[in-house]
Amino acid sequence: MTYKVEMRHITKIFGTLYANDDVTLQVKQGEIHALLGENGAGKSTLMSVLFGLYHQEQGDILIDGSPVEIKNPNDANRLGIGMVHQHFKLVESFTVLDNIILGAEDTQNGIIQYEQATKKLQHLIQTYKLHVDLHAYIKDITVGQQQRVEILKMLYRDADILIFDEPTAVLTPQEIHELMNIMRGFAKEGKTIMLITHKLNEIKAVADVCTVLRRGKKIGTVNVKDTSIETLAEMMVGREVSFTVEKPDMERGESIFEVEHLNVSGHGRHAVKDVSFKLHRGEILGIAGIDGNGQTELIHALTGLKPIISGKATLMGSDITHLPIRQKYQKGMSHIPEDRQKHGVVMDFDLQSNLILQNYYQPQFQKHAFLKFDVIQDHADELINRFDIRSERGPKTIVRQMSGGNQQKAILGREISRAHELLIAVQPTRGLDVGAIEYIHAQLISERNQQKAVLLISLELEEIMNLSDRILVMYEGEIVGELDPKKTTVNELGLYMSGAKRGGVHE
Ligand SMILES: Nc1ncnc2c1ncn2[C@@H]1O[C@H](COP(=O)(O)OP(=O)(O)OP(=O)(O)O)[C@@H](O)[C@H]1O
Ligand SMILES: [Mg+2]
Questions:
Q1: Which of 55, 255, 258, 456 has an alpha carbon 20 to 30 Å from 186's alpha carbon atom?
Q2: Ligand 1 within 6 A of 404 CB?
Q3: E strand residue ranges, 267-332
């Protein structure tokens, strides 16, 4: 039989690391083929080889049964291959339209033919319900809309082999639902889809077939219908994974973080309105809400990434409202930021430097203005071991070359290991594999058990429900309810999140 896409015995080596080791992948036309594997297993690499971003050391690629040479993404485009990357590749200061046609401009006498492009795009937008304003600037639209731009970019180039690298990691449940429908529509039309995701229930929901990679090697390809979530997880990590979180009952301690009547602006409007809450030792306080209801602005204001209009924040008795970021950290705050590449790491620094970003100036790491590189390296080695941060060159790896999930583990390791009393964790498991999620969840619970205070912001309802001792719901910038996870259901939580219900807030 002829496959739409066939990758035979692909080996891709970075330095000494076999990112892909003799991987064979066969994908039929009209199939939704999931690619599953731990962080750093080689999924993005394999798809980057198919898209011409990397060239394999060994192995062949066949499209419709014929061997092809894919030297760069232009070759891939010509073969009908499109890719939505794990971290979008859009020009923030360009409009949606300019981003889509960039590199595929149709010109006449040197003038871009916008009219034709717009017409074709309007048609695609209608057909696939990918609504987005063509004249808006990328920096002004939501992440969900940016993703639609990336999808339109592929369709504009007439791609019929569509690669999605973790497309749902940044989407709301509603947007995920829409995307799944869009994918099903593509498949029905005969387009071939490769889907990388860590969410096993998404694979169950849309994929026909799933190939599992582990440490660069192919473990197997299975029919999704006949395979349980537990089996998929076990194939992926090589051991059984527990999906429930062990959480002992605990008395919460004194309140150490107090937020009073906080107001913050954002995107030209009032993003956070009169928010007050108290957070106690030995407690995980979850903040639930649909993306864009002020959570980001709230956290940016509390952590010093954004100014506060009015209100007050007190940590361990000190007023930290307007303190510079460094001093907030010194007062005992740790922060796992929402956007790991923008606020969590310096992409072109090596791993060991990234692990001391907030305390490189302290005597532990510095003497007479000279960094103690041996200490810094030992410190990195310790965190690498403890948090299982995988990379090619250990402490010396440039963070840009690490897989997305491992960048996240590095930030987690740094923030949890630094002296702190309050941990603000925003989407701490975004992009992590199920094994790593299990580990991170255990770490957050252990923070709580050690009498730290944890503020957890997540779009994943299950994560909020399983970990939190108390849940606050944010809607249109306000706290509209306080819920006890033991006494509430996901449905009820959903009602608060959509603004259909409101309730009292205690403390
Ligand atoms: N440009 C590069 N240079 C050196 N090493 C790299 C490069 N890109 C990836 N790697 C390494 O190759 C391995 C596979 O990375 P890849 O990004 O394919 O993983 P992944 O399966 O997509 O993981 P994740 O789920 O975390 O996104 C990782 O160990 C990574 O550090
Ligand atoms: Mg990846």
A1: 55
A2: yes
A3: 269-280, 283-288, 310-315, 318-319
**Per residue in 205-243, is it b (16+ CB within 10 Å) or e — as a string?**
ebbbbbbbbbbbebbeebebeebeeeebbbbbbeeebee
Pair (91, 174) in one structural domain: yes
Same domain (yes/no): 100, 165:
yes
Written as six digits, the tokens of 188 are 């029905």
Of the candidates 210, 124, 203, 121, the one whose C-alpha atom is nearest the C-alpha of residue 168 is 203
First to last CA, the chain: 64
Nearest ligand 1 atom to the CA of 166 is 27
Q: Write the residue with the smallest CA distance to atom 22 of ligand 1.
A: 44
Distance CA 154, CA 143 (A): 17
pLDDT digits (tens, 9 = 90+) for 349-375: 999 999 999 999 999 999 998 999 999
pLDDT in tens, 192-209: 999 999 889 899 999 999
pLDDT at site 505:
62
The domain total for the chain is 3
Question: Which residue shows structure tokens 């510079």?
Answer: 324
Helix ranges restricted to H, 388-420 = 404-417
Whether residue 95 lies inside any domain: the answer is yes
Q: Enumerate residues 6+ apart whose C-beta is below 8 A from 143.
A: 170, 171, 291
Contact by Cβ (8 Å): 316, 403: no
